[in-house]
Amino acid sequence: MRLHGKSVLITGAARGLGRAAAVACAAEGADLTLLDICADLPGVPYPLGTVGQLEHTAALCRDAGAAVLTAAADIRDTRGMREAVTRAEDRFGRIDVAVNNAGIAAPSGKPVHEIEEDEWSLMIDVDLSGAWRLIREVGGAMSARRAGSIVNVASTAGLVGYRHFAGYVAAKHAVVGLTKAAALDFAPTKVRVNAVCPGSVRDDAWAEGRMLAEIARALEVPVHEHEKTFVEAQPMNALIEPEDVAAAIVFLASDESRQITGSVLTVDGGFSIR
Ligand SMILES: NC(=O)c1ccc[n+]([C@@H]2O[C@H](COP(=O)([O-])OP(=O)(O)OC[C@H]3O[C@@H](n4cnc5c(N)ncnc54)[C@H](O)[C@@H]3O)[C@@H](O)[C@H]2O)c1
């Protein structure tokens, strides 16, 4: 029970890595605030999480023994984020751990000079600024308590380039930079900020993740071939499982990592070492 008594807020918790992280945190004794947009976003060419999916994640966490609060909020919306954080603090007394997981993989699939202004802005607003907004909302109280852990879910796209993914790559590189800068700002008050960089994660039916399929679609890799393509790209020749990423998040959330801040933990089967 490495998170016993901790209050953990996770964004993008309706499905995918957010769901896997939520259930793993619940199994380690955490109480949870699960936040998701629960709506589609104009400009994102695939469906996002739903209220039903968020409630399903909540039910799985309650089955694991957690007290759970759900919040439908868009990480682009400061007021909505502030309300969700306030509700979490009212319910659980504080937020010990904030996991910046929500993200979009598209609009993508174009060379950099063909990206439209609104496509670029959307990607940066969700994948970069969304993480900064939550850090801003929780950072003051964490600093005042001289305790807290923030985990940012970046990507191998935060470490290397990918063709026709300039917006996503730029946003995820910036999340890594944000992690390091925020870690320095908070270090005197013992609040830790770390990043996890997953490689290609399997679109697990249980977690209902769909990012790999959407990346394949954006790269025009036939969806039925995409697993093979991504498996071959990772030196350990396996897709990452959502549980592998969740385990890294639990470690960085827990006091086991109390001397670790500003670090970038890859969960990529060796992809980024060559
Ligand atoms: N799946 C992978 O292969 C992979 C690899 C590396 C990094 N990542 C990162 O992991 C994170 C989770 O990805 P996933 O694979 O679970 O994707 P997913 O699309 O299955 O789930 C993402 C969740 O985030 C939510 N979301 C999106 N925009 C939001 C917004 N503006 N406000 C609130 N919620 C919003 C969606 O509704 C959805 O429930 C993302 O940051 C992604 O970039 C994923």
From TrEMBL:
PROSITE patterns: ADH_SHORT (PS00061)
UniProt keyword terms in alphabetical order: Oxidoreductase
Pfam families the record matches: adh_short_C2
PANTHER family (alphabetical): DEHYDROGENASES, SHORT CHAIN (PTHR24321), ESTRADIOL 17-BETA-DEHYDROGENASE 8-RELATED (PTHR24321:SF8)
Protein family (similarity comment): Belongs to the short-chain dehydrogenases/reductases (SDR) family.
Protein name (Swiss-Prot/TrEMBL): Mycofactocin-coupled SDR family oxidoreductase
